[in-house]
From TrEMBL:
NCBIfam families: OMP_w_GlyGly
InterPro entries recorded: OMP_w_GlyGly
Entry annotated with the keyword Signal: yes
Keywords, in A-Z order: Signal
Protein name per the record: Outer membrane protein
Protein's organism: Marinobacter subterrani
Leader peptide range in chain numbering: 1-21
Length: 245
């Protein structure tokens, strides 16, 4: 993880405040993300397919964010974002089994992903075309629990837990219709075999202080923490509602 910190931290000098907000701005939003999970989890050399073997389905997904923008030069704007993904299901392991759980037996599983982002960013463009660049510190916690149903009741837990620096970019383009715009935003890091990507694209409508979005979000996590590794993708449509001041 030190190598990840150096890789992204060294890029800080590339983020310069070319434009700032004219006035103080504050906004908040909540969203629902209808996501599907695919990929693999591994402990040592044992691997399980989270989609085909475990048959995980979404239980609850939530996202909330708040941002603060200001006209003070040099100082970055601030954005906080929280994401929670919870999925569970019943499936059957392949013939090779998984970490003490024999093959071809029924299992019940739970996958939890909890992450909090602190983003510091600058407005590079602020007119009909908007562009923000910055850095994000992501507190990531992911856990997959697989338990045998019946038999010996064997249980295995695969877990990753880290604070990860990521690049941040957001772009939005106002259309020639009052209050309508399209945009995309994302966080990313790739270094020494580990990588994380989190991108979304959306359409937006604003009326008075209210802001509504609908779009598609995809997150890819390929991260190793000790003997445990998650190599998964989470994607699906989302809707959000927010207020801006």
């Amino acid at each position: 993880m030190r190598k990840l910190m150096l890789a992204v931290g060294g890029s800080l000098i590339l983020v310069t405040p070319l434009s700032q907000a004219d006035v103080v701005g504050l906004g908040a939003s909540v969203s629902y993300w209808d996501s599907d999970l695919s990929g693999q989890a591994a402990t040592n050399n044992d691997v399980v397919d989270v989609e085909n073997d475990l048959n995980l389905e979404s239980d609850s997904n939530a996202n909330a964010s708040v941002y603060f923008e200001h006209p003070v030069p040099i100082l970055p704007n601030v954005r906080l974002n929280y994401t929670l993904v919870q999925q569970s299901g019943r499936g059957e392991l392949g013939t090779s089994g998984f970490v003490g759980i024999p093959g071809s037996v029924p299992v019940q599983s739970e996958f939890d992903l909890d992450q909090l982002d602190l983003t510091l960013y600058y407005e590079v463009l602020d007119n009909w075309a908007n562009l923000d660049l910055g850095l994000t510190a992501r507190d990531l916690s992911g856990k997959l629990v697989v338990q045998q149903i019946g038999g010996g009741f064997a249980v295995n837990e695969t877990k990753v837990d880290a604070v990860i620096p990521m690049g941040y970019v957001a772009a939005r383009f106002d259309l020639p219709f009052t209050g309508v715009s399209v945009g995309a935003e994302g966080n990313f890091i790739s270094f020494d075999g580990d990588s994380l990507r989190d991108f979304n694209a959306y359409g937006q409508y604003e009326i008075a202080l209210l802001q509504f979005r609908a779009g598609y979000r995809q997150m890819a996590i390929d991260y190793e923490d000790g003997n445990d590794r998650l190599d998964v993708e989470i994607g699906g449509p989302f809707v959000s509602a927010g207020v801006t001041f």
